[in-house]
Amino acid sequence: MDKKETFIAAIKENEGFIFKIASVYTNNTDDKNDLVQEIIYQLWKSFDSFNQKSSLSTWMYRIALNVAIYQLKVSKKRVLTIPIDGQVLDYHENDNSTTEEKWQVFRQQIDNLNLLDKGIVMLYLDNKSYDEIAEIIGISPSNVGTKLSRIKEKLKTQIFKKQ
Amino acid sequence: MELDELKNTWDNSNNPPEQQQLITIKMIDQMTQKKYHSKIKKIAYPEIIGVIICLISAFFIGIYFYKLDTTFLQGAGIMSILLLVTLSIVSFLSLRQLNIPVDVNRPYAATLKIFATQKLQFFKLQKINAVLSYLLLVSILILMSKFYNGRAISEIKYFWIYSFSFGYLFLLFYSKWVAKYYKKTLQQTEELLEDLQQYSMNN
To answer: Do A110 and B44 touch (CB under 8 A)?
Structure first.
């Protein structure tokens, strides 16, 4: 398998997370598509620097989260870009209204967390182990545990406040 | 929604449709040939335009400085030039911040630390910008009447009453708006930095 094929296979394997990150860090479809493009672009650009110290998936998650943060930084300073392929990224929000409604509630909850907690919780939701989360985020595994317990508390408080 | 419910929604949320490929060989070729323009780019048109306008205005005041025949007007002229140059520097600093090379290989927490620190610096620059802009407004008003009417401001009836009343009102509302706009974000950013500090120390 050559480099391009390996890359495509790796993207295919992790595309769900790329889409979900893009959905959580943006507020409209255009921005979401831009972020997906940007993540793929940065992954490809850095693909040679992947040193196999961590798993490919861990490395991809880290890059994807970092790109989302940089995108936040420059989101108000948009420049015109040539889309890599408009057609391919023109996927549809084919969810039914209940799922969409649930997603909106999800967004409300997760948007109340700070960016550190948001990153940790997304990785947790994506079934990453404490060790993997620690490696991606750059904190110790025990701190991941502490953080997750606090996040759970925070979420409960939010529900309580709403009621 | 508790964490388990969030997980349920997360698992069921929208993935790209099966039949569509997110990336193709063709797209990789385009990226390699740099046909794709990264959005993490170092262009910030408002700042660049702002710097150009400030420098042209400073140059204009410098050229017509000989028209300023009293010490008061000359003082206003020098102040305006200084303010315009300072505003250019402030904009330039904002631009430089945006130009810091991107390293997407860092751990997420390290990126967040940089992001939050830069955000706080940006807020400081914005505050400086707001104060300097108001001072500039006053000094430019003084100069404009001389440049365009040929009359010193002291000769224009009611000028001080109107300009300062409106200026004060403007400053009052503007500063309140700025404070309200930034307060929450500023607080959140400071909390995030504290959080990162705490967990980095324990790391």
So the answer is: no
Amino acid at A132: E
Q: Of A78, A73, A126, which Cα lies nearest the Cα of B46?
A: A78
Give residue limits of the domains in chain A. Answer: 1-94, 95-163
- Predicted confidence (pLDDT) per residue in B129-151, tens digit: 878 888 888 888 888 777 766 66
Any chain A CB within 8 A of the CB of B19? no
Q: Which CATH architecture has domain A95-163?
A: Orthogonal Bundle (1.10)
How much is the ipTM here? 0.80
In angstroms, what CA-CA distances link A80 with A40, A144, B36, B82? 18, 39, 11, 35
* CB contact B197 to A (< 8 Å): no
The CATH label, of 4.10.320.10, 1.10.1740.10, 3.40.50.720, 1.10.260.40, for the domain at A1-94 is 1.10.1740.10
Higher pLDDT, B109 or B200: B109
Task: Tell me the nearest-neighbour CA distance from A77 into chain B, angstroms.
Answer: 6
Is B48's Cβ below 8 Å from some Cβ in A?
Answer: no
